[in-house]
TrEMBL record:
Domain Mandelate racemase/muconate lactonizing enzyme C-terminal: 161-259
Organism expressing this protein natively: Streptomyces graminofaciens
SMART domains in UniProt: MR_MLE (SM00922)
Protein name: Mandelate racemase
Gene3D superfamilies in the record: Enolase-like C-terminal domain (3.20.20.120), Enolase-like, N-terminal domain (3.30.390.10)
CDD domains: MR_like_1
Length: 388
């Protein structure tokens, strides 16, 4: 197996929505196609990757550092003893001459390529990624469906409480039992009205609603909101303060008895370990949301899983951010607690296969080899155009 070509591009995933920190008016993401010399049905096998959402495209780092290293590597340096792709070795090649710390967009660039290499390797074996991963890194018996919750509930120009309720009703109609909305982008009184409007749609059951602050609150505001929302018994209170402010997180966890979720903006093993060491998270109720596509890919995510195990955390306490197909396979293979889902946002990259059906907030996996981008027509068209 040899990499013959790599292609890199950018796809807009912009929209008028806003969370408590950013709007998405210029959001985009990197895509890559990695072509191999393995031929199937008369065509080279190609692996695809993209960088989830929430971080911008990382083309400069891909073009100037990550991809040239991969292309210039002796083919044998990327392979295991059986001649298949060795993902950890490929990771080392991509990270040559990179200092530790300050992860930023570099972890995004490596994550895109890591995803494409996993897509490629599982296609070469003719297996859906979750089976490929379960055989290598799991117990060989992947989950056949994955818990998913519907994320949305953004702020948007002119969006009324009725619009918010209709959006949430739409998620329930699609088969989701648990939904997520944004808070922290309005004042407390308005956010409480928004939360109560959504809880009404959920038949009064706050445990089916997660709220996401996107890192906006200082400690006082975090505690004030915590006191106000605690009686609702929410599914979780997410990314409450700055993602790297572990002390804030620990202080909130001391006072807020409900579940907390965070980690979508932690991009490395070291950052995730600091969260576990210093963030005060409770392994019986809190959730880690590290997104493999943003944080150096699955090779690093496997290291994070090891670290969590050593600290007594179950993989079931992980529900990655991003709502993408890559994490869906990872969730089934590594027996995570579930995966985010974006039924309405971040097109064309967001969401699962076109024919995926959600029932009782669970989605099944398909037998399409690789990640299955080929079963997501609008996105596949964009990916295919990269190398046609
Ligand atoms: O609004 C965003 O950036 C996405 C986000 O936080 C999430 O999916 O949890
Ligand atoms: Mg979030």
């Amino acid at each position: 197996m040899k990499i013959t070509n790599v292609y890199e591009g950018v796809v807009p995933i912009s929209s008028s929505i806003r969370n408590a920190w950013i709007d998405f008016s210029s959001m985009d993401c990197s895509i890559v196609a990695i072509e191999s010399d393995v031929i199937r049905d008369g065509r080279p096998v190609v692996g695809y990757g993209f960088n989830s959402n929430g971080r911008y495209s990382a083309g400069e780092i891909l073009r100037r550092r990550v991809l040239p290293r991969l292309l210039e590597a002796e083919p044998g340096r990327l392979l295991d003893e059986q001649g298949g792709l060795d993902h950890a070795k490929a990771w080392d090649v991509m990270m040559r001459n990179e200092k530790p710390g300050g992860h930023g967009e570099r972890s995004v660039a490596v994550g895109v390529v890591d995803m494409a290499l996993f897509d490629l390797a599982s296609k070469i074996e003719g297996k859906p990624l979750y089976r490929y991963l379960s055989e290598r890194y799991g117990d060989g018996q992947p989950d056949d469906s994955v818990f998913v919750y519907a994320a949305g509930g953004y702020y948007a120009p002119g969006k009324t409480l009725t619009d918010l309720q209709n959006e949430m009703r739409g998620f329930l109609d699609l088969g989701y039992d648990v939904v997520k909305m944004k808070i922290g982008g309005a004042d407390l009184a308005e956010d409480l009205r928004r939360i109560e409007a959504v809880i009404d749609v959920l038949d009064g059951d706050g445990s089916r609603l997660a709220v996401d602050v996107n890192g906006r609150f200082d400690l006082d505001t975090a505690l004030e909101y915590g006191r106000a929302i605690e009686p609702y018994g929410l599914f979780w209170y997410e990314e409450i303060g700055d993602p790297l402010d572990y002390h804030l997180n620990a202080t909130v966890a001391e006072h807020y008895t409900g579940s907390i979720a965070t980690g979508e903006n932690l991009f490395s093993l070291q950052d995730a370990r600091n969260l576990i060491r210093y963030g005060g998270l409770r392994p019986d109720r809190d959730t880690i949301q590290v997104d493999p596509a943003l944080s150096y890919g699955l090779v690093e995510y496997l290291r994070i899983q090891d670290m969590l195990r050593q600290h007594g955390w179950s993989s079931r306490r992980c529900i990655p951010h991003g709502g993408h197909q890559f994490s869906l396979h990872i969730a089934a293979a590594l027996k995570l607690g579930g995966n985010e889902s974006y039924p309405g946002e971040f097109q064309p990259t967001g969401g699962f296969a076109d024919d995926a059906v959600v029932e009782k907030s669970r989605v099944g996996l398909t037998d399409t080899p690789g990640i299955g981008f080929e079963s997501k027509a609008a996105f596949y068209k964009v990916l295919r155009a990269l190398h046609s």
